[in-house]
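Q: How do we represent a protein-ligand complex in a form that can be generated token by token?
A: Start from the inputs.
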Amino acid sequence: MITLDANPFPFAFALPHTALVIIDMQRDFIEPGGFGETLGNDVSLLSAIVPACAAVLAAWRNAGGLVVHTRESHRPDLADCPPAKRDRGNPHLRIGDVGPMGRILVAGEPGNQIIDALAPVAGETVIDKPGKGAFYATPLHELLRQAGVTHLLFMGVTTEVCVQTSMREANDRGFDCLLLEDCTESYFPAFKAAAVEMMRAQGAIVGWTAPSGLLLQALGEAAQACVAPQG
Ligand code: TIU
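Then emit the structure tokens for the protein with tricarbonodiimidic diamide bound:
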């Protein structure tokens, strides 16, 4: 077991039963010209977490942990994009429109890909999701169940939209969830702070939070314990 001195109390997990879930680290949210910018946001805020996410991903892969990446993504015919989603608000470009990185939030387009620094490698699961939550209309729950996963570590964007929705969906499905605080970001710093607070409030009503340094330290110690001489 690995135990992190998390908020609001320690979070214990067994590595073989835990998945790292990386939510929507896509060009469409992080780079200019994508969905995030067309909604009127300053997308430059989000790239600050990439080094911390990359460090966690590298350490998790090194430990042999299960990795799940998600993408907010629609079919090219937009059959999985309800008009209520496409017609919402007053963006410069709507879902399915052609932008500088291809069609906004459409599967297979350049802007819909995960950024190079966190790109999936062979054997890692990539879930294309039409909603904000990672479980709605996806095979994620069944996949985690079959893999014997009981605990989830979350990172990604944005904190109060797709990350929080996914964590709430996971919590309702019986997973113990921890959010890595410095590996998630919002276009609105106050919303990130509020989301982190509300998830861990009331005795971890949605889940736990912890800085990624605690996870990196614990994984390093677990690795050292594996190679320590016996006796
Ligand atoms: N707009 C916003 O903050 N987020 C999204 O639309 N999707 C995700 O969070 N991935």
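Strands lie at 2-4, 11-13, 18-23, 66-72, 98-99, 102-103, 125-129, 151-157, 176-185, 208-210. The mean pLDDT is 97.
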